[in-house]
């Protein structure tokens, strides 16, 4: 079998979470190995990860944008953007931004209603 990885990989035992659907859907996973531009994930049961995803490394507060390369039911290989290029904001921050944008839209609508002549 030909090795296609560009960088060295390290065995890990890190908690991870993949997010997809505009970061609305999540799946927990275990990151079994990690390299500069990829990872092998293990899921608690049979899973079908999406083709495009964000990989959140929970213990490191790090996120990377990634693409599914292979999967076999409970394990998956993903190719990620290199660490220095994968500037993905943490899931909690994305949720906060989404909530604040919604609140801002509601407030803007209310201000517009108050400005209407009676």
**What general form does the structure show?**
elongated
Under the CATH scheme, the architecture of the domain at 9-88 is Beta Barrel
Low-pLDDT stretches: none
Structural class computed from helices and strand pairing: alpha+beta
| Assigned CATH superfamily of the domain at 9-88 | predicted glycosyltransferase like domains
Task: Give the SSE map.
Blueprint: E1 9-20, E2 25-35, E3 38-42, E4 52-57, E5 62-71, E6 75-80, H1 91-115
Antiparallel strand pairs: 1-2, 1-4, 2-3, 3-6, 4-5, 5-6
Describe the structure using short key phrases.
118 residues; alpha+beta; 1 helix; elongated
Write up this protein:
The protein has 118 residues and is α+β, with helices and mostly antiparallel strands. It has a domain of 80 residues: Thrombin, subunit H (Beta Barrel), CATH 2.40.10.220. The protein is built from one helix and six strands, in the order ββββββα. A six-stranded antiparallel beta barrel has the order 1-2-3-6-5-4. The chain is elongated and about 65 Å long. The termini are far apart.
Task: Write a compact overview of the structure shown.
By secondary structure, the chain is of the alpha+beta class. The chain has one helix at 91-115; strands at 9-20, 25-35, 38-42, 52-57, 62-71, 75-80. The protein is elongated.
